[in-house]
Amino acid sequence: MLALLAALAGCALPGYDSGAVDGSWYNFGRDKTATYDEELSKQDIDYDPRVIQITPWLIRHQDQERAQQTLSDAQQQISAAPATPMNYTIGAGDVLQVIVFGHPELTNPAGTDSSEGIQGQLVGADGTIFYPYVGEITAEGLTLKALRKRLAEGLSQYIREPQVDVRVRQYRSQRVYISGDIVKPCTVPITDVSLSVLQALDQCDTLATKEGGGVGVQNVILIRDGQSTPLDLNQIYATGRPVPLRPGDRLLIDDSANRVFMVGEFTEQMALPYTTGGMSLNDAIADAGGVRLDSADTSTIYVIRGFVDSVPERDGGVRTVLRPNVYKLDASNVSGLLLANQFKLQPRDVVFAAPASFVNFNRALALILPSVDLLFRSYLIYDRTGN
User: Fold this and answer.
1) Under a CB-based contact definition with an 8 Å cutoff, are residues 326 and 50 in contact?
2) For residue range 159-197, what is the model confidence (pLDDT) as tens digits?
3) Domains in the chain: how many in total?
4) Is residue 321 part of a domain?
5) pTM higher than 0.70, yes or no?
6) Phi/psi of residue 150, each to 5°?
7) Exposure string (b/e) for 79-110, b if CB count within 10 Å is 16 or more?
8) In what order do the strands lie in the sheet with 186-189?
9) Whole-angstrom Cα distance, residue 58 to residue 63?
10) pLDDT beyond 50 at 37
11) What value does the mean pLDDT take over residues 306-323?
12) Residues spanned by the domain of 234
């Protein structure tokens, strides 16, 4: 029995390894036969992680970084000062209403609704409308003011100084498309009033999870002209700079980005939703039910952050860099708990509570003892049968 336990001392035991971070698993991709980003760029990748102790100086440094944090270049380009009302451009499918003051017979020439139940002038698929005394007019691509002028010029041959107004009864040609982590994709029409990301999300009635609850939308990917721009709505609207939308824009709601993963020796291993106001390490540990005092090594709690990053090169290319930061907290005393209350987590952080020294050994022993007991009982039965 002692010889068996001694042999197991050099074997791999189940559970997590609470030792130092080993860089061997970062070597994925260095093999020339592997399919990875560096095979495309033919650039070396830095896999070396950085282990940083959580101290009061680190807390102070992170507070200063958050105070100086600004929008990324991509977010600054698409966000602007409060947008002014836009000149709406007529498109195919729009329903227009032409009003000729003093001539009610021209305001609704047909006198009744159209065959589609639409009262007004429908812009056809070819972008044209037909109006009495004026004929066929290409309305697509014109503003309301330009179309009003065209109609007035055509009617001036029959009516002295016609007073014409053009309104849009139904906006159907230009839309914004919303999909992602919602029950059903939806579309929001573009009107003569500027539309921001927040207004578009507010008009999407299907913005709810499959379980029927509401979605706390924080991360949205704006797809425009083939370019994808991640948006942190809390950060953008904290600066007071709304993001105006354009016809054809697509909004992809990515709710999976707002999570913090709790693994290891916690009461519950789970993915926590990242709150709008931020989340401290203490908050996350409490939401996971706390660490298991019977198995966790409270002096070794890791926060793993930033798996993938990229940096520009002098030749204009981009070099992929995998340089994660591993923050280590000693929560075995009161000072560590105070630091955990001030250490702010970020979305996609992985919080890992390492097991205590003999936990893995005890777990392996618990797996082996039933087999040893079975062998011992079998030996006793065999011995008694032989006697």
Assistant:
1) yes
2) 888 999 999 989 999 999 998 878 888 999 998 888 888
3) 3
4) yes
5) no
6) -65, -45
7) beeeeeeeebbbbbbbbbebebeeeeebeeee
8) 186-189, 175-180, 250-253, 219-224, 227-232
9) 9
10) no
11) 58
12) 174-255
Task: Please provide residue 84's backbone torsions phi and psi, each rounded to the nearest 5 degrees.
Answer: -90, 160
| Position 121 in a domain | yes
Domain with residue 335: its CATH number is 3.10.560.10
The pLDDT assigned to 322 comes to 58
Q: Are 178 and 188 in contact (CB under 8 A)?
A: yes
Per-residue model confidence as pLDDT tens digits over 137-169? 999 999 999 999 999 999 999 888 899 999 998
Considering only the C-alpha atoms of the chain, give the largest distance between any 2 of them, rounded to a whole number of Å: 128
Q: Final residue of a domain: which of 255, 285, 305?
A: 255
387 occurs within a structural domain: no
Q: Are residues 363 and 333 in the same domain?
A: yes
Q: Are residues 262 and 234 in the same domain?
A: no
Say whether both 270 and 358 belong to one domain: yes
Out of 234, 255, 276, pick the residue that ends a domain: 255
Report the chain's mean pLDDT, rounded to a whole number. 77
Measured CA to CA, the distance from residue 301 to residue 51 in angstroms comes to: 12
**Which range among 26-35, 73-82, 359-368 shows the weakest confidence by mean pLDDT?**
26-35
CA dihedral over 309, 312, 318, 320, signed as positive or negative? negative
Task: Enumerate the β-bridge partners of residue 252.
Answer: 179, 221
193-222 confidence digits (pLDDT tens): 888 888 898 888 777 544 444 446 778 888
Task: Clarify whether residues 147 and 206 are in a common domain.
Answer: no
Helix (H) / strand (E) element for 380: namely: helix 359-386
User: Which CATH number do you get for residue 110?
Assistant: 3.30.1950.10
Cα–Cα distance for residue pair 76/89, rounded to 1 Å = 26
